[in-house]
Amino acid sequence: MKNRMIRLVTLCLFTAPAAMAADSALQPPGVIGAPAGSGRWPAVAESRADFTTHTLYRPASLPASKLPLLVWGNGGCSDNGLAHSLFLREIASHGYVVIALGHARAEPSTRPAAPAIPPAPGAAPPPAPATDATDVAQMSEAIAWATAKTAQPDDILFGHIDTSHVAVAGHSCGGLQAIKLSADPRISTTMIFDSGVYNTPGGRSNIKVGKDELANIHGPIAYFTGGPSDIAHLNAVDDVSRITKVPVFFGWMPVGHGGTFSAPNGGDWAAVAVHWLDWQLKGQADAGRWFNGQDCTLCRDGRWTVERAVTH
User: Fold this and answer.
1) Residue 170: beta bridge partners?
2) Which residues contact 296 (CB under 8 A, 6 or more apart)?
3) Cα–Cα distance between 117 and 74 in angstroms, integer?
4) 10-residue mean pLDDT series, the chain (312 residues)
5) How many whole angstroms from its chain centre is CA 291?
6) Contact by Cβ (8 Å): 255, 232
7) What DSSP character marks residue 81?
């Protein structure tokens, strides 16, 4: 029974988001929802008519200064750019432009999820889809699009994106996309949420990324997982043990594979993301103290287990 339940959970995590996205109507071009987030610049989601395959998050009122860029891959490699909207609005509200893979489809439901129904005894899970709903190439496209728009005088983003400071991040399957793109010289830093390269080949994702590619990561990287109950936790443990050439942070909270994305303003996952980005892309030393040294802020937070702090 235990093995059947593991297969069910894996199936839901890696296929359900993409399936739901495919059935969701597209949002029309324009701003989606009211400004939100606890940062200095409350942020909006936006569907762009000139880039419908991606979803933009930005401060509703853009500050004069250029903002670093975050490119995001969704859990399940979903094609719904609003799948992590609370989390991504929160990040953008602290002075970032965020581009999520996927069309702007449906905001996450605030209703409790229905309990999972176990498969019939002996039933095998359906075969994995032939392709993922989004792919790594779309992350590269996001950087190219941002570079073009910040140089286009008639665009609202003109002069507002600092494409010399770019982060890539993702959840679960989207985390694998982020690892794959991290070799790109345009990437300054990486954040991996509830993910890691499969320890045993043949997972649900179709991303071709192997452990050997971890050696191609050239910027600081942070791994955050939901602890031992997170199905990606052991993959992350193994990844971190193999990364030796760049600074690495690895911490976890016992919240499972779903993290805190659905909590108000993205919860703890958004808090660590903002501080990591503030440190890595804006050079804020106070933010770096969350992760740096054996006496780091998260090291002293009883809710967190820090497996590896950054040390300089």
Assistant:
1) 73, 192
2) 289, 290, 306, 309, 310
3) 24
4) 35 39 74 96 98 98 96 96 97 98 84 44 56 95 98 98 98 97 98 95 79 97 98 98 97 97 97 98 98 96 97 78
5) 18
6) no
7) T
DSSP state of 291: T
Written as six digits, the tokens of 114 are 């229905």
Structure tokens at 192: 């991996």
Query: Can you tell me the distance from the alpha carbon of 134 to that of 80, in angstroms, rounded to the nearest whole number?
Result: 9
The span from the CA of 271 to the CA of 87, in Å, is 9
Relative orientation angle of helices 136-149 and 173-181, to the nearest 10 degrees: 60
CB 45 within 8 A of CB 31: yes
- pTM flag (> 0.90): no
Spatial contact of 43 and 83, defined as CB atoms under 8 Å apart = no
Place of tokens 């993922």: 132
Domain ranges for the chain: 2-308
Distances (CA, A) of 225 to 103, 194, 289, 304: 26, 4, 20, 10
**Any idea which residue has 């940062």 for tokens?**
39
Do 132 and 208 form a contact (C-beta atoms < 8 A)? no
Distance between CA atoms of residues 192 and 251, nearest Å = 11
Residues 171 and 169: their CA atoms lie apart, in Å, by: 7
The CATH architecture one would assign to domain 2-308 is: 3-Layer(aba) Sandwich (3.40)
Q: What is the distance of C-alpha 59 from the center of its chain?
A: 19
